Amino acid sequence: MYINIHTHHTKPVEGIISIGNLYKDFDSIETNSFYSVGLHPWYLINETWEEQFEVVNEKCLLQNVVAIGEAGLDKVTETGFELQQTVFSKHIQLANEVQKPLIVHCVRAHAEVIGLLKQTPVHVPVIFHGFNKSKELAQQLIALGYYLSFGKGLEKQGLQEVMGALPRAKIFLETDNSTASIEEIYAHAAAAFQIDEESLSLQLQKNAATVFGAALTRI
Ligand SMILES: [Zn+2]
């Protein structure tokens, strides 16, 4: 059994438990798939975000919406940073309110993301998705209790070494918006941890049970 905790392809695939991410078109939610919902920092607009966030507020109550996000901070996008911070804080509060894990998008803004997670503070599991940075940063985030999700970046030996040194209980895998398959990413991850895919699969099922509870099995 494969678990893909973050993909932008929201159609269900046989044999894979996927969490499809929606940052718009929230009415496309179907009952036979799992989702995360949230406003992506790339697409925030001053005049409209509050209205969209109302929809997120409503949709996140659905049983098959198992996480809030992706939401976060990005220093390489046009969106104003202050607006990003305001909206990210709202997502932290919402995740706390509905007690669902938070999937974080973070680009060159780790200190600010950590700052807001502490300031609000967050009371649900936090997953930094698409992690592809240094061993030091990975260890810092894990020491703070957060989870890291790895994707296509694992094709690179360097990132495999970063992941291989981390506690397996804090890891997730994802395809995000890439065309890579989750099977390929599992293969890279098994190589990184120097374990067989069966053990990896069991470990990731355990991690998902810890973070998402029974929500990921209820369809
Ligand atoms: Zn994404």
Order of helices and strands: EEEHEHEHEHEHEHH
Side-by-side strand order of the widest sheet: 1-2-3-4-5-6-7-8
Amino-to-carboxy terminus distance: 15 Å
Bound ligands, each once: zinc ion
Number of strands: 8
- The CATH class turns out to be Alpha Beta
**CATH architecture label:** Alpha-Beta Barrel
Helicity range: 25-40%
**Biggest beta sheet summary:** 8 strands, parallel
Mean pLDDT: 96
Which ranges are low-confidence, i.e. pLDDT below 50, for 5 or more consecutive residues? Answer: none
User: What is the CATH topology?
Assistant: TIM Barrel
Structural class assignment: alpha/beta
**Which overall shape is indicated by the principal axes computed on the Cα atoms?**
globular
Question: How many domains make up the 3D coordinates?
Answer: 1
Query: Could you tell me the radius of gyration in angstroms?
Result: 16 Å
Give me the CATH superfamily.
Metal-dependent hydrolases
Number of helices: 7
Fraction in beta strands:
15-25%
Keywords: Hydrolase, Metal-binding
GO molecular function: hydrolase activity, acting on ester bonds; metal ion binding
InterPro entries: Metal_Hydrolase, TatD-like
Protein name: TatD family hydrolase
